[in-house]
Amino acid sequence: CCAGLRNLLQGLSFSAKYYSKHNPPQTMCPYSKIEPKQCHILYCSKSICTHRTAPPGSILPCRFFSCKEGTEVLSKRKQNTSIVTSDLLHKKLLKSEQENWNDISPTYKAMTKRIKEKLEELHNMYALNSGSPRMRFGENVYFEENGCIFLAKADDDEGNADILFSIEDLGCSDAFIQRIRISPDQRYMAISLKSENSEEATCVIMKLGNLPVVEKVIPSVFSFEWAANDVLYYTTQKNLKCQNVFMSTFTYQKHTKLVYTEQDARFFVDLYCTKDRRFLTINSNSKTTSEVWLVDCRHPFESPALVQARTTGVIYHVEHRKDQLYILTTYGEPAEYKAILTHNYIHRINLATYCRPYRKSKLMKAPVASSGKENWQLVYALEKKTKLVDFEMFSDDCVMFLKNAGHLYLNVISFVSHSVQSIKLPTWACEFELESHLEHTTSTCYFQLSSPVHPPKRFAYSFKENNLIEQAVQEVPIITNCHTTRLLAKSKDETLVPITVFHNKNSKELHRRPLLVHVYGAYGIDLNMSFKEEKLMLIEEGWILAYCHVRGGGEQGLHWHRDGCQHNKLKGLHDLRACIMLLHELGFSQPKYTALAAASAGGVLAGALCNTDPALTRAMVLQAPFLDVLNTMMKTHLPLTIEEQEEWGNPLEDEKCMKYIKSYCPYQNIQPQCYPSVFITAYENDERVPLTGILQYVQKLRKAALDHASRTSKKGNWIPNIILDVQANGSHCDASWEHSLNE
């Protein structure tokens, strides 16, 4: 069985690509009964393509948005010629950049060695001592460490834990465990495995017992939940989309069937079980609208029931308690939201945004039998400018993880006493990570807090004692020499933009210290501020770290995102400029010691600032950056273009939109001038941000910098370093510790 699994996974090259990339491999799992789907309802008449329309959320084959409706299709000969020419140009540019990298990289050999040794030391000191999240299930505790899944007794020493699963035994050393789900009777365990070279995941079903065995392997899976002891629901991915839901059974008459198909390309489907396991929810979300279907876990073979039909602008998420649905929603008066990531953060188009869509500020309830929004009753509303970061339902309480003015705290709503208790959290905390609580009757809520320079610390909140307890799994050194400052910068339109600053308390003459500025500003997603060893290393070496929470991100709610997307994208650029200028005015470094860091969609604002204000920074470091918005949004054959129109606009149908995108698009606005140095890391097989666009950007930027240098004859004229490191392995901003260490 293991040999067969190993061959399968190696044959897939772990084509499991975490959020969906290109077409999944056609190799079918030997254990699976899933038949290949017929997914073609794209109709062509002569050279015009149209799409058949179908009701949203119906069980029909998924549509391919291969081309814009009514758009002429190129003849096959023209298409082939264009593809060959483009492919040759791509290979030529790639070879040139690889040769350039091979020539330059030895220059940094000594520095690389020193940094790598320091990072490994910090990793061993902090990350390995912080412990991994635990899943409590009755008397059992499940946890993952070093590619293994362990089972221990809650009151026993984890040194006596049993190994249930090991990646090494499968012969897949490049994979890591992404998600774990235990069946209600603990007889089965579903695991998703992902490799850093792909974005889809492979789901492995284990039958537990004295000798755990592989029951089934399902390729190209995004999310999965147990509806009953032997009934698993899961979603599949294709072309960066997740639109089909399947159900598989594992005892008696084993079978798999299609349960739900989403027809709208803007929507992404994810599964979630309510905390009391009464319902499995099928959540279909776009960036602005959602729809939820309920599967009764007592009757998992019955058809899903609709909670509330999708209504433009209304996003909601469902929990259950005592025959009442508790609904987090934007319905009603203007609401704030936070786009939550249930997995490691992904960038340019964040499919994880759709997993548990906490873009809400109201908790409402309705009877299960009459769940339409006309029956929704308000339970609790958040204060203005308060962000809901995460949410967890228990039998008698509801815990809300909140953010206000950059500070994190808890609100505990008691359904018994009808009271709300507010608990402040440490001022250094910037990120939450809620641990999985498999039983809703537990009396304690466990979570971890961290910041870019503070490793995760485990905390527990006791409902009975009404207190917060810091828990040390092992002795973790306390960071005492780092100072955290929160600032507000006034943007061009007088809007106040938050900045979080970290620096060493012992640093003197801060205006002479190097400054690393971070920015993102897209999709309503906050800057990632979880712990990173390299950030702590920089603090120890005297650097200043600044995180600019500009518009377009989610730091201040729904309006903060709306004020920085589509026709408001320039506001994010104005915010970034104001933030850096304020930092310099307050004595945090100066332009010649300032570097700007961004990843994925953050590359839009970073690249735009590089064009408009090149003198503000000395260097720019980008990871898998999105740099050519205009050309990308003009290509409807790309899998993400349709759904991303809600973020960037539709330049194909709106001339004003096209001109507006062109006004800030980094690639379109390169000109001969003195640019800062630029270091870009890209991935050869990245399909979220195609490598071709990055190659063309680097070529154009380097030419502009050289043109400027040749036109000026100043003594000591400075020519920036423009370096591109193309990683043959790895996927979009998502790497293992070892790979990220090498980067």
UniProtKB/TrEMBL annotation:
Residues 530-708 form the Peptidase S9 prolyl oligopeptidase catalytic domain. It is an enzyme of class 3 (hydrolase). The lineage of its organism: Eukaryota, Metazoa, Chordata, Craniata, Vertebrata. It holds the Pfam family Peptidase_S9_N. It comes from the Eukaryota. Belongs to the peptidase S9A family. Serine peptidase whose precise substrate specificity remains unclear. Does not cleave peptides after a arginine or lysine residue. Regulates trans-Golgi network morphology and sorting by regulating the membrane binding of the AP-1 complex. May play a role in the regulation of synaptic vesicle exocytosis. The gene is Prepl. InterPro entries: AB_hydrolase_fold, Pept_S9A_N, Peptidase_S9_cat, Peptidase_S9A, Serine_Peptidase_S9A. Residues 122-332 form the Peptidase S9A N-terminal domain. Keywords: Hydrolase, Protease, Serine protease. One of its GO terms (molecular function) is serine-type endopeptidase activity. Signal peptide: none annotated. Its EC number is 3.4.21.-. GO terms for cellular component: cytoskeleton; Golgi apparatus. This is Prolyl endopeptidase. It comes from Picathartes gymnocephalus (White-necked rockfowl).
